[in-house]
Amino acid sequence: MSPVPRQTAAVIARVLRTRGIERIYGLCGGHVMPIWMALAEEGIRIVDVRDERAAVHMAQAEAELTGRVGVALVTAGPGVTNALTGIANAHVSRTPVLVLSGTTPRPQENRGALQDMDHPSLVRPVTRYARTVRDPALVPQELAEALARAEGEGGDPGPAFLDFPTDVLRAPVPASMLLPELVEPRPRFRARPAPEAVASAVDLLWSARRPVLLAGRGARGSGARVRALIARLGCPYLDTGESRGLVPEDDPNAVGSMRGRAMAEADLVVTLGRRLDFQLAYGSPAVFRAARFLRIADSPAELRDNRSGALAILADVGETLEAMLRHAADRPSSVDPRWAAELRDGHAVRAASLRKTLAEAPTGADGHMHPNRLVAALRDVLPPDATLAIDGGDFLSFARVGLSAAAVLDPGPFGCLGVGVPYGVAAALAYPERVTVVATGDGAFGFNAVEIDTAVRHDAKVLFVVANNRGWQIEVRDQEVTHGRVVGTTLRDADYAAMARGLGLYAERVERAEDLPDALARALARRPALLDVVVTSDAVSSDSRSGLAWVPDLQPLAAWNEAEAAWRKSGDA
Questions:
Q1: Is 475 a catalytic residue?
Q2: From 62, 475, 508, 564, the catalytic residue
Q3: Range of the domain at 126
């Protein structure tokens, strides 16, 4: 490798390249032009987007799929404010993202300069680290610290932010400050569990009669060990949005369709890198009625939120599972075989019923196909190693239940609609040899629809499938039922295929379910492509019925809210 350059912008680019960064996502502007050009000089691919929010979403998708830090470069002022939603989403999702920006040259600070803003104060609540670097001598040190914080060294992983006055980007870094340990890549070792913690975890899990494993963010990359553990124990497994694809849906121990019963009857719940957030009823005893918790994570927030574990292990999930499997050796499982078999059989019956329901879902009163017909057609064409991004409010409810893939991305715990298109672009660029499909509702599609232009310009081989029901359907139904009228929640019958063709994609509008197989085949062969699929607005999703729209007081879902209220009342009796 050539000697380390001296200009600040060039040093930034060299450090990113040595850390294995192959792509950055961004939108150019004068304040970051020195970094932009230095990245190109270093051979780092610049994926230029149409909006900075999408740049951060793309960086997050790359990080979640590859395990490397994702990098976004956004310009000052509105570039940073546009990026804020993406930063907040990565923050809540605990995803390692580095966001770089520029700011006013030092001689112009606080004088009313163009786009002069205190960016770190704006982003600090949703980042692990946020600094303006005003001294060129500190650039290597600050960049190394930001990358470490993003990766979760010393705390939770998540976004880190650095910006640089433009005159600093043009200034030289003192050669004496280009220390090898700051510039060159360094090994990162996974935290291993203490032997006594492993022994205690094995005693707890191997003596449980009704254990359930719940995987999350921290289990990514450990799929083989998770599958080995549930196979050894004969233990029911439940995935979450953070771990979809980690264990195939046809694994004999995956019992997602029996989620409610498994959660209610478990005597031990093992969380693998997963917070007990609203998606898991905050771990409430009203829902997990008889369970103790064994919590394993490399992130402190995934160990102590809402319900403390009978045992908590702060270590890498994969290393911990491997150590537990070794320690248990040939120790027999105590899992109640009848209980586990009932869950497996019940899941199989419900899964078969779901497949039938998807394929035979009736046409709506408006004459348009049910969303489940689209889901069924997608199931038939997704290859086993596909990457799937699902997005939306109402349509997400259908897709989340009916679709699966080797890797699945969704709006996450922040519920951030609009991620589907940018996630799909980044996924297709990170793994061009795989099929990438974005399945999104029309409302969510609109947030970042123009990024299909980015897919064309960068030849991202992704298929966008838009379920077009012409409205924000969860809210439409809530207004109809609760308020008796619909206000500001309907959309036009827009022709998204015409829009896509105007931006250079292959696109079709599909109005009949029987036309879907051929249309999907044509679109998959011509990626990047878009299918605008007209679906009925009459279909009622499970999320529409669950309480999400009207936001219950105690729990996010109506059934959980009632259980929580009853449990709290019983404690006062």
A1: yes
A2: 475
A3: 8-183
